Amino acid sequence: MTEYLSDFQTSIFDTLKKAINNPTSYYNNLTKTMMLLLILFCFYWLIRRGLSKSHIEPLKKIRIKKKVKNSFFIMLVIGVSIIWINALNSLAILLFLLGLFGIVLIRGILDNILAWFIIRKRHYFRINQRIEVNDKIGRVVTMGLFHFELAEIKNWLSSESYTGRTIKIPNKDIFDAELFIYNYREPFVRQEVSYLIRHDNDWQGAKEIISKAIDSYYQEELLPSMDSQLSDKWKEDMLPTFNMSLDENGITLFCQFLVDYSKVASVKTRLHEEVLEGFNQHGNIEFAVLEVKQVD
């Protein structure tokens, strides 16, 4: 029995030795393939970790990650092909390369279909919801198997109005990009207006005028449109807040308030009109402007 075990152990070591010494051995090639996968994975993980800690802007970071992923996949295909070129016949190599090429072609399609399934089943967003993805803002108008469409908002416009363009975004972008949903639970967002006045102006009077305009908006427009079952999150953030900053340019008065995301432009216009009218009627409030003096 002991001799049998000894012979069995010897045969195993002999087989492994032959596999290592023989370049066409399947065991040897399989070991090399696993080592290649491990090395590439380690380098890929280190690069992604470095990018995550870098201060590169998010959109550029996403593009770099995609290029790195594709580059490592190409290196893997080339490396595996070189390893197995001596162990397989030409037909097997051709089929293997065609299979990998097919995976590359359909990978994007499969990612889009998987993302579409997640969007529909997990309710990532729905038709007519406003979202922001890859620095693009718009209202969802269609959701297809491979992409969804947004009615673009703002972009080159100064206010949050529709540009008239339609943006097609691949479904798979939800895996890599940050997705912001404006009306996931409630249709309210925080917005801000600010006014820069001179140092010698009546800033208390200016604050009172702004407060009056905000209070009028809350009483006449915001509160009547709110649901009585408003979540506790918005009950805490509902009241307007005032802040002030002072620098060499003048006194800046800030006011943050709650507003329906679809009425941001109209509400800001209303507030500006009321504040401007109040400033004009006041005798000691002027906007601070940069004065340029020309010396002869």
TrEMBL record:
InterPro entries: LSM_dom_sf, MscS_archaea/bacteria_type, MscS_beta-dom_sf, MscS_channel_2nd
Domain named Mechanosensitive ion channel MscS: residues: 109-177
Coiled-coil region: none
Subcellular localization, as worded in the UniProt entry: Membrane
Pfam families: MS_channel_2nd
Main location group: membrane
Alphabetic keyword roster: Membrane, Transmembrane, Transmembrane helix
Gene Ontology molecular function, alphabetical: mechanosensitive monoatomic ion channel activity
Keyword Membrane on entry: yes
One Gene Ontology cellular component: membrane
Listed transmembrane segments: 26-47, 68-87, 93-119
Name of protein: Mechanosensitive ion channel family protein
